[in-house]
Every structure is written in C-alpha cells, then in structure tokens.
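Convert to structure. Protein one:
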Amino acid sequence: MFFVTFCTQERRKLLATDAVHSAFVAFASQANSRHNVAVDRYVIMPDHVHFFVRRPDDLELGRWVGMLKQTLAKQVAPAGTLPVWQRGFFDHLLRNDESYAQKWNYVRENPVRAGLVTNAEDWPYSGEIVLINRA
C-alpha cells in the first residue's frame, strides 16, 4: 500500500469543494472496479490531497495519479484556464500496520490543524472508498 500526496500550484485553495470531492470518489470507485486499484482512506484539503492506495504490480502509480489529477483539474479549471497542480507527487510505500496508523492519524487531523473544523470527523472532504486490509 502507498501513501500519496499531491498539491496545487502555488498552494492555491481550489480543492475543498463538493465537485472535486465527488469527482475524486467517482474516479477512485471506477479505478477499483475497472483496474483493481483500491483507494482506502483519503483527505482532500483546500490545497492538497492525501490518500492511501493499493495497486496491481503492473499499474504505474505515476501515470494513474496523473489521470486522477487531470480529472480533478476539470472541476476547478474546466477550460484549462490555469495550471492547477505542482509537478509530480509524493508517494511512500507503507511497510507495516504501525506506519499506516501513524500516517492516518496525522492525515485525518489535517483539517483540525488548519483550523477548518474542530473535530476531524466534521470535515466533509474525507472518507474511505475501499477497505484495504492494513495488517
């Protein structure tokens, strides 16, 4: 399983919207049914996205993330009017359940640390799409 993060260009606050959230969930759900790519927990912040993903060995993560970024960009810049993303993304291969728990606890509290909500559970742009065995 990988932990993935990518950010908007110049950290512009473009992402925390219902449209982006819906597009993210739809893309991830289709990826699971069509390509066996499982997006587990995620948090969409105003200027970046964090998620956990498991992919088949023959699927290139960078290419898949690029398609996800293109899909989300259509929600914030429909005519391609501005550059939406920083180049690339950060990925980290999780090796055990402890590192997953540590990463998830940090990620789920992002909206609280940013002052967007008082409780992480109140942030509307987070969730879980496919339950991945974390053991």
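Protein two, convert as well:
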Amino acid sequence: MFLQQLINGLTLGALYALIALGYTMVYGVLLMINFAHSEIFMVGAFAACLLLRLPWIAQGGILGLFLAVVGALIISALLAMLIERLAYRPLRRAARLTPLISAIGVSIFLQNAVFLLISNESIAVPEIFSATPWHWGAATVHPIQLLILVTTLVLLVALHLFVNRTRLGTAIRAISQDAPTASLMGIPVNKMIALTFLIGGGLGGIAGALNGLYYGSIKYNMGFVPGMKAFTAAVLGGIGNVGGAMAGGFLLGLIESLAAGLIPNGSDWKDVIAFSILILVLLFRPSGLLGKHVPEKV
C-alpha cells in the first residue's frame, strides 16, 4: 500500500509542480497571482481531448499523443499571452488589487465559455495510450504515470536551465529584480513579461493534457481544485522560486496521496489537509520552504 501511494503521490505531485510553475513565474516577475492559470490548465485538457478525437491523430499512436500534447501546449501558451495583453498589461500600473480582480474575472469568463460552447458534462478522453501496466511487488505502475513523471522532470530541468543559463532567462530575472532599471538597460520589458506568460501557459496546458489522459475525463470546472492545490504547492515551496514550485508540488502530492491511502477515510480529508498546509505555511513561514524573505519595495 505504501509503495503504491508513493507512486500515485509522485504522479500527482508532478502535475501540481507543472501547474505551480505558471503561478510562480508570473508572481516572480509581476508580484501578481494569476488566478486565471487554473482555467488555462483546463483549456489545455480540452484542447488535447479535441485533438485526440481527430481521426489522423487518434490513429497515430504515440506520435498522435505527442501531437495532441504539443497542440495543447501551443493553444494554452497563446491563450496565456493573449490574456496578459488584454487583461493584465493595461492594469500593470493600477493598484495591486485591480489585476487580481481582473484575473478572477478572466477565470470565470473562460470557465463559462467552455460551459456554454462545449459542454457542461464530463467528457471522456480518448484512450490511445493503452500499454500494459507494470507490477512492482504489490504496486502497479501505469505507463501514463511514467510518462507524466518523465515529462515533468524533463520540463523542469529545461526550465531551470532556461531561466539560469540563457540570455532570455537572465532578462526575465533582471525584470523580476527591477523592471524600470532593466528597461533602461535595453531589455524589452513587455516582451519578456509576455514570454513569461507564454512559458507558464504552455506548462499549464501540458499539465491539463496529461491530467486528462491520467484520469480519463475532463470537465469545464476541472481547473479550480488542482489550480488551488498548485497555488498551495507554489506557496509551500516559495512562490517566485522555480525550484520551490517543483519541490512544493511533489511534496504536496506525496502528502495528499499518503494521507488518502494510509489514514482512515483519508480520501475524504485530503483536500482539508492540502489547504490546512497552505494556512500553516502562510502563518509560520510565508516565504515558503525554499523562498527568501524579500522586503517590500518602496
């Protein structure tokens, strides 16, 4: 039981980590919580599902699956960049609360748009990745779980290298430190912020596609709970810290899975445990496990 819940927890944590990166990147640059990110995750799931229903993709096997996930990445990334341009950029100089309200409005708009234009019921995701599960003692590992873990680790390493080893990553970090000074140094602030949303949205779209494949169904309101838990993971690890988002996602997934499997009636309490962790972290360590306290800029 413990080994099985450990595998399930790592899978769940990988999904949380991918979503959490969208929150932490935007916050790291703009000090803003993008609450529409959970709906970008949902749109990615729907995009992958609709692509998998196309005959030439559904019959493509592993290649078709790859194309569906890449399609979800592109659609979600472009949507995130569009949201930044229309709903957030005009409010960048407004009071801190204003873009937060705008983010909630965008979230409600996207959720209701999918509700009205596509379906208000759960939609089954076509299964084109039906390999035989592997058995390790009493534990069972499904190939989709391995796919989620490998994909997440590759993307996390790639993002870490991008942020810390490339000129674009250096520009993004410079903007997060001091945007006006970065602008005077010739860094195109608006383009770099748009790139940040593009990357975060793409990661959210991949997470949505993998989530749909893992659970086998999607729904218009599927983004809310995973989005809030990914936000919890970002805060737990240290929001604004890429490594913290990764660590927080895996840690939260493990805690939730082990609680659900090892505590009596734990599945009924897993959401309570997840959000209790958020409250405790905010009370006793607001900067998160790997974050650093940053004084308020005057």
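The two ends are 52 Å apart (CA to CA). The first helix runs from residue 2 to 30.
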